[in-house]
Amino acid sequence: MARFGLPALLCTLAALSAALLAAEPKSKSCSEVRRLYVSKGFDKNDAPTHEINGDHLKICPQGYTCCSQEMEEKYSLQSKDDFKSVVSEQCNHLQAVFASRYKKFDEFFKELLENAEKSLNDMFVKTYGHLYMQNSELFKDLFEELKRYYVAGNVNLEEMLQDFWARLLERMFRLVNSQYHFTDEYLECVSKYTEQLKPFGDVPRKLKLQVTRAFVAARTFAQGLAVARDVVSKVSVVNPTAQCTHALLKMIYCSHCQGLVTVKPCYNYCSNIMRGCLANQGDLDFEWNNFIDAMLMVAERLEGPFNIESVMDPIDVKISDAIMNMQENSVQVSQKVFQGCGPPKPLPAGRLSRSISEGAFSARFRPFHPEERPTTAAGTSLDRLVTDVKEKLKQAKKFWSSLPSNVCNDERMAAGNGNEDDCWNGKGKSRYLFAVTGNGLANQGNNPEVQVDTSKPDILILRQIMALRVMTSKMKNAYNGNDVDFFDISDESSGEGSGSGCEYQQCPSEFEYNATEHSGKNAHDKASSAGAPARAQPYLLTAFGILSLVMPREWR
């Protein structure tokens, strides 16, 4: 028995050794890891065919591994690219939304102005004929200034409209009193009576209110869309820190080194890493949400009382009504002007008949109502545009605080939220045990996955926060019908811009200043030479002063 014991034992050992060799686990082969590595465009010579000792690894778990040092270095770079790509995809969609809506709004507003100018020109050519053609540059200038305001903003809408009505009064006053000769100085005096006498009825006051509010809201809203587009564009370009890159490598590719090529990172594990890597972006959320709310407020104004389409579409009829009102009241207006500025000099007999035949208005003129009016621009209407963009704005709210979760929701980045046990937790295939940290830089002090320097906020992000804060302020002013662009130019602004914030008692009256200057240099000389009653001057100045206080209150 003993003779046969040793050979039998040797046979048994040999059989066991053969069985062990035959049963050596396939997981020790790195063929699948190698295949995936090469599929990313890397050199197959970097990847071992079987597991090797992992003492050379700096980030991934050491021990037996399918990753060489070259693989870990290249995977580190690849993890950065993967992260930047996914974040960029999330942001690019939002940026495209704002870019496309800005382009559509911009096209709409510009085409709306073009249509309104064309409509007025067609109407006035048919209604006033040669008289309009002789004075068409006045209306052309009006629309040029409106376009310039929308594009550049460096136009005081109230002053521009006041100047338009003053120039129109000068032209019409000369036409309805074509038997007289008027000097430039006399016509300048006439223009001072625009607000006092209301030769155009209530149209200038109403139109000033409507145009100012509508244009401020429209331009500010378009600016807001452009700011949102630019903020997203700048923030979407992420540059991971070294600590973030290490965490990304560990999350995305270190599982490959252990042969776990099909195991995805745990959702909460991914969430902590994304909140650490996107800590500064998370700080945008507060100002971004305030900005979105302000945009939605202005959108409501655009749908209602500040609708630029409802203001510009009938502007030709409104101006025509004002002209008709001036014609009907031309006698009373002329008499009051003659009292204040002095009687004008009659034209010589020969020039009188020619002037009357060439320039006088006919009482037969009546407002022209064209049958076809452009009700839309750029193939749409303001209501449709605003309805669409409001929905997009609501969807964009909390975008930055949701960005880490949205990145981890991408199947390329993490396992589903319900797969908590069969996922990669940074060390192996097991449940992730750490709690998820909050959003923003201040909450990353205890992030278990990414070391974040909470004392150094990103300068680019701070600039975008400031840009959003400034734009939100403009939005709130636009919501109230105020234009803040003039306040931005200088701290020494005298409050001449739309929506001045100074108190009525403290604000110098522009009309009082003009009247005083005029009476000192021109009106007094004219009155004395023309025999105008001296007692009329104090009365007019008093009336001007009262009007200068009343009109701003009406605007408010």
From TrEMBL:
Keyword Lipoprotein: yes
Pfam family, one: Glypican
Assigned GO CC terms: cell surface; external side of plasma membrane; glutamatergic synapse; synapse
Gene Ontology terms: biological process: cell migration; regulation of neurotransmitter receptor localization to postsynaptic specialization membrane; regulation of presynapse assembly; regulation of signal transduction; synaptic membrane adhesion; Wnt signaling pathway
Superkingdom of origin organism: Eukaryota
Native organism: Sus scrofa
Family, similarity comment: Belongs to the glypican family.
InterPro entries: Glypican (IPR001863), Glypican_CS (IPR019803)
Span of the signal peptide: 1-22
Alphabetically ordered keywords of this record: Cell membrane, Glycoprotein, GPI-anchor, Heparan sulfate, Lipoprotein, Membrane, Proteoglycan, Signal
Protein name, as recorded: Glypican 4
Membrane-protein topology: Lipid-anchor; GPI-anchor
Function: Cell surface proteoglycan.
Gene designation per UniProt: GPC4
UniProt-annotated location(s): Cell membrane
